Amino acid sequence: MPPAAPTNLGYTPPDGGWGWAVVFAAFISIGFSYAFPKSLTIYFKEIQEYFSVSYSEIAWVSSVMLASMYAGGPVSSILVNRYGSRPVVLVGGLMVSAAMVLASFGTTIMHLYLCVGVIGGFGLAFNLQPALTIIGTYFQVKRPLANGLAMTGSPVVLSTLAPLNQFLFDCFGWRGSFLILGSIVLNCCVAGALMRPVNKSVQPKPKTEPPLCNGAKSRSQGHVRKFIDLSLFRHRGFLIYLTGNVVMFFGFFAPVVFLAPYAKHQGIDEYSAAFLLSIFALVDMFIRPATGLIGNTKWIRPRIQYFFSFAVSYNGICHLLCPLASGYMGLVVYAVFFGLAFGMVSALLFEVLMDLVGAHRFSSAVGLVTIVECGPVLLGPPISGALVDIFGDYKYMYYACGVFMLVPGIFFFIMHYYNYKRLDEEQRQAVAVEMRTSEEATEEQLPCLSIQGALKDSITPSRD
């Protein structure tokens, strides 16, 4: 097993034991967080006809839900830092359940925006961040593997919810289905119950804070830092990650959303077009844990940021080459390679953030990242759809998404090379300062040792 990255947790994570139950809980919680908004699209056609609204109006239900999930990141992080992961996930599961039950009695589309979009989205935020955070408290050496297994929950839950929602829709309609989904999503509360706080065998040493020299302004900053660490905006690695991700998320989800419509645009029947998503999800499902295993090897773990840079660039290349795929078999090949690329990025997305900032600051980091990414997540698919409307062809949308992924991939390669180089220099300087301090301390002790030796000789009786 490769050596673990340095951590300031103050104790040794168990890297197993109950931690695997926590990974299973995170698998469920993360799975519902990412898959639930996508799975609801099955009901959109009937809801659209029921409320007599346009497709764009009904599509905003999922968009608002995803945007609320990302916007709720900082609130979720503050609650996790204050109360821990377990109670936050329990509250999140109850919120999503209540949102679906209330939505089943909806009379207007605005009712669905508020219930499913806002309340449900914030509930999903309370499921996502705590699940990501608690893994870092249980795992250090095996953390990439644990994160890869937990992130597999997204394609597994999606592949399960999609046929289940279709069955519920055929039997009970959208109102009855929403009531049943409100009970199904209570499984997040079961997941939250499994998220037992880690047993810290060694308590962390109290951190020494610098003296407060600016009075009440300084004290208020200390209170803010207690809940969410805004000093991360001065952290070099965090800023690299955030800058690249903002650009990347403009092209991250749109290729998945438009894969089936693109196939239909080429004259492929509906069932074959839908099967492309099944192929994509199947490949995605298996590559995520495999990526975790690869990321945990001694060759990849010390420089895992390069692995992430490759995965992002690989996504961009896939999208740029997609318009060259001709016929159904060409799209099948694209779906396989895209599934590999998407799964690799998804498995590494939060592991590399934890690698940069450390597990002790991860909760604040993921909250700050998601609130900034809220804009690209909300605007990315509509911008891509606008390109299709303007040019009347999907290939320009895929070209744009390819650029949105390839540019940050190259940016990550360059900036992480610079970051690793600076980190090595800083480590060498720290070692040199430590050695110099040790030598100076030894030199200060030499006169005292000489005096002690002389006194000892003077009081020692002679044998002559």
Automatic annotation (TrEMBL):
This is Monocarboxylate transporter 2-like. Belongs to the major facilitator superfamily. Monocarboxylate porter (TC 2.A.1.13) family. It comes from the Eukaryota. It is found in: Basolateral cell membrane. The chain crosses the membrane at residues 18-37, 58-80, 86-105, 112-139, 172-195, 238-260, 272-294, 306-326, 332-353, 365-384, 396-418. The keyword Transmembrane applies. Residues 19-420 form the Major facilitator superfamily (MFS) profile domain. Keywords: Cell membrane, Membrane, Symport, Transmembrane, Transmembrane helix, Transport. GO terms for cellular component: basolateral plasma membrane. Its main location: membrane. It catalyses: 4-methyl-2-oxopentanoate(out) + H(+)(out) = 4-methyl-2-oxopentanoate(in) + H(+)(in); 3-methyl-2-oxobutanoate(out) + H(+)(out) = 3-methyl-2-oxobutanoate(in) + H(+)(in). It is a multi-pass membrane protein. InterPro entries: MCT, MFS, MFS_dom, MFS_trans_sf, Proton-linked_MCT. GO terms for molecular function: monocarboxylic acid transmembrane transporter activity; symporter activity. Gene3D superfamilies: MFS general substrate transporter like domains. It comes from Seriola dumerili (Greater amberjack).
